[in-house]
Amino acid sequence: MKTKRDQQLLNIMSRNPDNWKGVFYFNRKDPRLVVPKQIPSMGWTLNFASPYSWITLIGIILIIIASSYFL
C-alpha cells in the first residue's frame, strides 16, 4: 500500500509542466499507467513513457479493428 507521502510525490510529478508534452504525459520515473490530467476534473490520461501504455493502446486498436472486421 502506498503511503500518503508516496501519493503526494506522485501528485507533484503529474502536476509538473515539464512532464507534459501538450496533452500527453511523459514521465519515466512515474510508475503509474494512468495519471490524472493537468486539470483533474477533465479526467485521466496514459503515461506514454511507460511501455505498458503503448501495449494497452495497441490492444484497444486491435480490438476495434477485429470487432469491425468480424461484425
SSE ordering: HEEEEH
Structural class by sheet pairing and helices: alpha+beta
Care to count the β-strands?
A: 4
Q: What is the residue-averaged pLDDT?
A: 91
Q: In percent, how helical is the residue content?
A: 40-55%
Low-confidence stretches: none
How much of the sequence lies in strands comes to: 5-15%
The number of domains:
1
Major β-sheet, in short? 2 strands, antiparallel
C-alpha-based Rg, rounded = 15 Å
| Coarse morphology | elongated
What count of helical segments does DSSP give?
2
Pfam families: DUF5808
Keywords: Membrane, Transmembrane, Transmembrane helix
InterPro entries: DUF5808
Transmembrane segments: 52-70
Describe, in plain words, how this protein is organized in 3D.
45% of the residues lie in helices and 14% in strands. The chain is of the alpha+beta class and 71 residues long. The strands form two sheets. A two-stranded antiparallel sheet has the order 1-2. Strands 3-4 form a two-stranded antiparallel sheet. Strand 3 and strand 4 form a beta hairpin. The termini are far apart.
